[in-house]
Amino acid sequence: MAMPPRLVPLLEQFDFARERLVNRLNGPVMDSGNGTDVAVGPVTEDEYLWEPVPDCWSVRRREAGPGPRATLLAGAGDWGRDTAPPPHPEPAPFTTLAWRLSHLAEMFLLRTDHTAGTRTLTRDDFHSRGDAASAVADFDKAMGAWREVLLSVTDEDLDTVGFSSYPHGSDPENPFIEIVWWMNQELLHHGAEIALLRDLYRARSVGR
After folding, report:
1. CA dist list (Å): 37 to 20, 28, 196
2. pTM for the predicted model, two decimal places
3. Residue range of the domain that includes 21
């Protein structure tokens, strides 16, 4: 099946952003932005859970309970992600690298399921990870599953409102091509945040 031409640039953008972020997280090199490879090590456990400011939201052991201004730890398993039902705290809590990676992985996993899967998964089914390597692997696997969905869609699917039934977004009201664009935007902007957190962690002791 030929890919719809209007999907091609979106998939190329997704592939570029995915590769760049995973390399930024794993190393041994990353794209500097101008095509030059820059050496980078994998995310460490300390960096993964690093809280650069007070009262961060993060991923925590369930037995420890939620962090400041959070009311619950979302998901299943031994670790959960800080959250609170609407209305969310204002100003929004600063979130750790672990929180942002968990958020992205959950979103890709659930949107994939609600587009071409059982359409039953909820946030209560998602497992946040307490270690960086597992979190990055889960995230990349979820993005790979989403990519497989994109390879299977038709022009008609792209125009179908509610083609994805993901319950935490505008999916029931928008054509699927807008959801594809939105997922790219989520990957790009959270990926940039994660990259900045890596830079800040590396530079945290400079000048002391």
Report:
1. 11, 9, 17
2. 0.94
3. 5-28+39-53+91-203
